[in-house]
Amino acid sequence: MNVNKLQTFITLSECLNFTEAAELLYCSQPSVSMQIQSIEEELGVPLFDRIGKKLYLTKQGEQFKPYAEQIINLLHSAKDHMRQLEDLSFGTLSIGASNFVGVYLLPSMLRTYSTSFPNIKINMNITSSNHLLHMLDTNKVDFLVLSDRVRIDETRYQRTTFYQDELVLIVNPLHRLAQKKECTLEDLVNETLILKPDKSATRLYLEDQFKEHGFAPPNYLEISNLEGIKQGVIHHLGVSIVSSFAIQQEINHGLLVKVPVQGIQFLRGISYVHHRNKHFSPAAKQFLPLLKQPQS
């Protein structure tokens, strides 16, 4: 099975249209059909179904797609790595990051990196942890940077924690708690707590901490985006517990106030994650030391 056939399969699986796939691949529609037929014969299973005028991936096709993507992406990575061994003015640094990490933590590091290696293309994907792990599986990224609260398969992936992120209680400057030097969890009993949805790693961590301290917030308001949560607190929708690193600008401009919670420190590690047998490109090897530098 050659690489061209795999690329044809991946392209067709994305657009699900033979004519469009042929245009994207700069070949004829019969050529696309013949390559797909050849792969199906070699695998001994159908990869696509035609229902009416529409094309669909079969279950076998859905299972085969990540393997095809992994092979193609691994080949591209190998070519990049070989060229970077001789010349670090060429190549791509591909990173997958969770929302907090990608928006607030990594940009300053990427600026330092791009100053030293201006010709290296930087590709950072900010998305959900499930999607990030899929991207890592298929070699679309060199490594992930995310919370250590995200569960991973430790037999397949290696996790290195390089930063401890403190989560803090934030309130509107006019809130009754804003003038307090500290508060207790009991002070939040009648408050609306703005948090991410219940599948979020941060949400699960905070709820575990609440249970450990015998606290059960009666009122939740769910917002899936950290910027949305901060705006919710600014506009008096409730209070929240978020990364102290992510609210520095709002604190400096007097839009938010952070209030220490007596006897509790909410901490989570930030880690980079990669396959245990990962061969890092020279471009990636030059970036990883930046993660270990103190953040401010």
List the helices and strands and how they pair.
Layout: H1 3-15, H2 18-25, H3 29-43, E1 48-51, E2 54-57, H4 59-86, E3 92-97, H5 99-116, E4 121-126, H6 129-137, E5 143-147, E6 157-171, E7 192-195, H7 201-212, E8 219-222, H8 226-234, E9 239-243, H9 248-252, E10 257-259, E11 266-275, H10 282-291
Helix pairs in contact: 1-2, 1-3, 1-4, 2-3, 5-10
pLDDT averaged residue by residue: 89
Principal-axes geometry comes out as elongated
How many β-strands, per DSSP? Answer: 11
Largest sheet: 9 strands, mixed
Q: How large is the share of residues in beta strands?
A: 15-25%
Radius of gyration: 24 Å
State the low-pLDDT regions, or none: none
What share of residues is helical?
40-55%
So how many helices?
10
Q: Helix and strand string, N-terminal first? A: HHHEEHEHEHEEEHEHEHEEH
Assign the structural class, choosing from mainly alpha, mainly beta, alpha/beta, alpha+beta, or little secondary structure: alpha/beta
Our measurement of the CA-to-CA distance between the termini, rounded to an integer number of angstroms, reads 50 Å
Features:
43% helix, nine-stranded mixed beta sheet, single chain, 10 helices, alpha/beta, 296 residues, two-stranded antiparallel sheet
Please tell me about this protein's structure:
α1 (3-15) crosses α4 (59-86). The strands form 2 sheets. Strands 3, 4, 5, 6, 7, 8, 9, 10 and 11 form a 9-stranded mixed beta sheet that branches. By secondary structure, this protein is of the alpha/beta class. The chain starts with a helix and ends in a 5-residue tail after the last helix. The protein is 43% helix and 22% strand. It has 10 helices and 11 strands. The protein has helices spanning 3-15, 18-25, 29-43, 59-86, 99-116, 129-137, 201-212, 226-234, 248-252, 282-291, and strands at residues 48-51, 54-57, 92-97, 121-126, 143-147, 157-171, 192-195, 219-222, 239-243, 257-259, 266-275. It is elongated and about 70 Å long.
